[in-house]
Fold:
Amino acid sequence: MVTKMIFPVLAAVAAIGAGTFFLVGKDKPEPQNIVANTAEAQIVGTEFSLLDHTGKRVTEKDYKGKYLLIYFGYTNCPEICPINLASISDAMDKFGSLADEIIPLFVTIDPKRDSVEQIAEYIPMFSDRIIGLTGTPEELDQMAAGYRVFYEAYINKERGEGFVDFNHSSLTFLVGRDGKYLTHFPDGVEPETIVSTTKRMIKLLEPELLKPELTN
Structure:
């Protein structure tokens, strides 16, 4: 009964959360409302087929049965991506035993530079729990579009002649065991917020599975 009651609530959260996305980069523009407040706004997420940082081809089916924290960024990101990945890493440490039920994914938006090898060197700087994903531009475009993620390359001469940086959405998505969107966290979110919100979601969805120390 509880599970049936919360699905409308989660749908409403998805509809609200899908509407506002924050962009970061050269001009740091104001939040963009890129999804209309319609039934389409409730659809966040997509099927995907990408390479993980070990070179293995993976799809969304490989992560079914786990909660996901998904962040889109790139390894040459000077500040924003490292801050958010550090928050995810700290959150994973604070989850305690619950961390075994959660997989953090880092999805590159820069496939030309972010090869499997590049991501494999980058990810360990934050956490050995994070899985890095890359692929062809078309594969990554499809996944980004499914999560309503915006990104746009520009030349940042301050970092060197012809150096490519990205304006991009900077959100961390929480996805359920069934692969469906639950909520998202804003740019610069504190790890404590990731932990407390995720625990509340799990308590709603699976109260009988939570260990005693996670119910507070």
Summary: Helices lie at 2-17, 80-94, 116-122, 137-146, 191-205. The longest strand covers residues 67-73. The chain has one domain: 2-204.
